[in-house]
Amino acid sequence: MQSALETAGVAEARRDLLIQQLHAVQDAIGCLREGHLVALAEFHRLAPVEVFETASFYAHFDILPDDAASPPRLTLRVCEGLPCMMQGGAALFDAARHSTPVGTRVIATPCMGACDRAPVAAVGFELVAPATAETLCVAALGGVASQPCAPSLAAYRARGGYAALQAALAGVLTPDGMIGALERAGLRGLGGAGFPAARKWRFALSHAGPRHLVVNADEGEPGTFKDRFCLETEPHRVLEGMLLAAHGIGAAACWIYLRDEYPDLHRGIARALEELRMAGLPWLPVHLRRGAGAYICGEETALLESIEGRRGYPRHKPPFPGEHGLFGRPTVVHNVETLWWLPDILATPDGADRYAASGRRGATGERFFSVSGRVRLPGVKRAPVGVTARELIEEFSGGMAEGHRFVGYLPGGASGGILPADLADLPLDVGTLDAQGCFVGSGAVVVLSDQDDLPEVVRNLLHFFRDESCGQCTPCRVGTAKAARLLDAPSWDRALIGDLAQAMADGSICGLGQAAMNPLRSLLRFFPERAP
Amino acid sequence: MTAIRFTLDGQDVEATPGETIWSAARRAGVEIPYLCHLPRPGYRPDGNCRACLIEVEGERVLTASCRRTVAPGIVVRSASERARHARRMVFELLLADMPEGAARDGTGVFAQWAGRLGVSRSRFAPEPERPAPDLSHPAMAVQLDACITCGLCERACREVQHNDVIGFARRGMATGVSFDLEDPMGSSSCVACGECVQACPTGALLPKTVLDADGRRAAPPAVEVASICPYCGVGCQVGFRVRDNRIEEVVGRDGPANAGRLCVKGRFGFDYLAHPDRLTRPLIRLEGAAKDPADCLDPARARHRFREASWDEALERAAQGLIRIRDGAGPSALAGFGSAKGSNEEAYLFQKLVRAGFGTNNVDHCTRLCHASSVAALLEGIGSGAVTAPFTAAAEADVLLVIGARPTENHPVAATFLKDATARGAKLIVMDPRGTGLDRFATEVVRFAPGQDVALLNSILHVIMVEELYDAAFVAARVEGFAELRAHLMPYAPEMMEPRSGVPAEQVRRVARLYAGARSALTLWGMGISQSVHGTDNARALVALALLCGQVGHEGAGLHPLRGQNNVQGASDAGLIPMMLPDYRRTEDPVARGFLEELWGAQLEATPGLTVVEILQAAERGEINGMYVMGENPAMSDPDAAHARAALARLDHLVVQDLFLTETAVLADVVFPAAAWPEKDGTVTNTNRQVQMGRTAVAPPGEARQDRQIIVDLAQRLGLDWHYPHARDVFEEMARAMPSLANITWDRLDRESSVTYPCLTPDAPGEAIVFRQTFPTMSGRARLVPAGLSEPAEMPDAEYPFVLTTGRELEHWHTGAMTRRAQVLDALEPVPTVSLAPADLCRLGLASGQRLRVTTRRGAVELLARADPGLPEGLAFLPFAYREAAANLLTDPRLDPDGKIPGFKYCAARVDPV
Question: Which pTM does this prediction carry?
């Protein structure tokens, strides 16, 4: 077992490397034997249970007794995220099961962040999108075509990339100036919570360093794929944003936490970082970390826990990460897309005002919406903040798909609730949907039509929350499980659902449990006749 | 500290800085429900169960009151409909999956609060599958169908006891308590401290002794008697829960040495009280029944050599035998072994009986076998044999040095405080030839060659001298002998000592710098230092180390020999030693003797008596003919036990007073059935110098009597006019005889349960840290005493190539008389084993579990092999609790010249397959 650790290159006994080392062993061996966990524990001077509870928390680790048969060589994953299920994901799963090549297994997996190409599947985590049983089978046997390479450092620079960073490093752009610009731009966090970026920086700066800058690339909200887009199309732009933010807050290190479902992006970012290092640009360590299959780690404090090498239990707030974040130090956590906008806002003197002016209906800025579901042209849509769902469908997505009548939409992925078509003219911005009990979150707009079974949509989303609840607090752990059961009843117990939903929203530790009942509450509020 | 004011349910309430809303509310009389919280020392509020949710004005969601600290001016609503709704829902959700809709502990925190909130049924359907019961552990039932994953067991195991066995596997609704890698509890690395059981709010974890047929707590917890754990020197305060004169359950009380914690022995080790082997009537040896040392191999089979007798007859027979020898061969032909397992009052009375009734100072007890050498070095160096700081001073220390001690096994609860300190950031240095349970928490693990303590310690001292790392101000003001020590240490450069000690010079330097650089360093040691023929030298070097670095007499610093028996400190203080009267006054000191002669109304002998091993050697030579042994088992505990047994068998008259027919008792003429600790009242003094109150929990079986009463009855028959109707009467006299007990009275102890000595005023808490200004020596200064190198008494050679070391295991106490008759402890460690390095086993062609023979020049035993990767090659470890493979048949009886302690930790041995 010790030799397996050596094979996997496990060299440093740092707790924050534990999850990466679990990956390394599993990549080398194909699974994690209990003996590996014990050997890792001994190596780290941890108790075996500490390694076990970390490993068993994450969906991507296959833990087996020492004497159990090895798992199949290949794992085929079929996405069961809502947009994929709307596009025949269930049939794909069944078909794949029946035509599985020898030495493979098929498992269902939560949203893989390619909803515009639904239904999708993966060989390992290498994406096949869209997928049919046949293409999946072919890919399993013959390998997955690699994604086109993202633009190089030279190409990005040729377009003026890293100019803002150079200005910052030269002292032309001061941290104060940057904060002022972010404030003028009205840039808010684009990962879901929508907290003003400038205030985040100020708060972290008000606490003594060393500080950390963390990039949240754990995009997992079902229906969201815009961070994948940013990192696929222009990784250097995100990295420039990261370094600008690191400079702005005087960070001692940067940490990129990338979801494990995006191996192609891992390669791309690693390549881009290597280019940067060769160019001598980063003046501070930049760590690239792999997640391991846990939606909850997109929650910023769970993400910090995961970087530190533990299970992703969200922390209680206060204290907030700006005061007590990674390794207990002041930390700013930014979503990928938030960083994407930074170079634009900071590169030119008028960048902030230009960004601010780009909103609609009095809103500031623009952002990427991940539009999926029943539209003609799903995809990542760069649109003004304050745009409406109807505009996103008609103006940006080519209207409804052939044969589908618009009946409703999810404004913010699985957790943002569901709104009916007659509320499709509300501006999409932070706080604009509060009265409806909904929110825009990460900007994942899933469009529903007359052909969608709304109770089934809600069941899909509740199952997702049940499977992804970290289990820390009672309302979410037990609540999501009981809610999923309540939806199986031939006739829904509305009173009990209401009681439970209220307690979960009020009493859960983090946003997952607080928002998990949003789709169900929305359905009962806006589509009461559709509920059994 | 200024109080923080806030509004709670419309009332103006004060909180202390850092106080939680839950706690401030409780003080204000507002009780907020809770589940995952345990308002006890060491338990961090976690806030996961959400049973304590409250509303803070201006916040979007509710917050856990157990976790949120009060901020000035906040407006808290604990009883709003929103908060009450969420709290009730928490209980309703959890109740859904309780077995048959009820917690397994109907009196636990969950059941209590569910009842108070009126949540008696759940509208939610239970999950289709719930965990099956795990009854694999002999002491505890794990029934996770009642688990609410509140995490208290995890915090108990990991943050309170630092045993790190329990965690949570998986996530979401599948989250489950896991012992190691989801092993059955009984085969996990659980050390059965029972902390998790004590913390569990639902009865998912329960002691098996309280279960009904359905796996639920059968009845509400029984009446609790506050007492002290009788096992080790830590002195944990316990609550004996007693039903029908039986200890049904033991809980930890919040004592100064244990903060509610216990170990497996204190938690689950009490059913020996009701073991069928208990002596219930006095026994008298049958006329003509030979005293055969072979009976020690299986005492129960030698029961037929005795007949039962009345107390009158037995006492008379015992007394007449003693009188005959005293008045014939003379007082010096008599000796007594008292016990560190009894109370202070019993120890005091016992030595008084031997001194005043027998007329000799031949009185000793097992302190001789454990810390006599430490005490000798301490008396010589600092003028006092007790610890200078409690082990709980670890909380203020930044460096801890543990050498020759295995507190995770022998002082488990003390070990938790050391682990606490490392969790807080203190640096731990562990020095031992064997791997220890503390290694995982240590900054430096120093594995040195057995018997080379002085070589190692002197090389550390050398570095401190040469690099001038010592505390010059402390040395100048408070220490003498510096120049001599300095000169003495010059040849001990780490490079020179490395071939002997086996410790790389670089590590020696690192350790020296770490220790000397500490603001506060606490030095703890155990029998690895003391049980050696150069034990006093070992301890001298250690005392010098602390003195040189100024690490005595301030917060977080001090010398702490971890005392073994529960009352070895108190028994020694009370004068149960041959060269000293109570409070360590020399027998030769005419003033001290005169004071006691007046107090006792008796003539006292000036010549110091013989020590434990010397007494048995004198018996073997026929110079001692009669003995009174109370609660000691020299036939098992003395080195070279074959000779010890022969010596006991040779006595003309042996009176033994014990719970069982021990290996020693089978050689007796008269055996008195004594009461066990939980059957008695009395005080005991732990390793921290805390005098604590033990209280009677159950009645002794049959005609068994309290030791005090037996000693007094015997004394009266020896012509002494003694009347001590109650232990308090003894304590009162003892306090007059012992200035160290000033300001400590029986009533005070009864009220406070624990008072540390020395204690300066009747209401002062007692001095935890002593010698802040001066040492109790003639000059007021401490003395640095150089320690020289000497070889162990018996070196390995071609015929006996192994080094044999002996000691204890977590589960078994001393010679096993109690623990091997405690069902749980016996089930956990049922048979004797010898531990060897895996490579040695391999070389011998043996595997773990196979039978082998260990032989020394004194004897041989057969037992099973156990592989222990923590052992260096060439070292064998044998626990001494097992009569069927008595380790002391093998040990070497040669003694340390100053402490008169045998070198139990080192002799040459051979290991052969059988």
Answer: 0.96
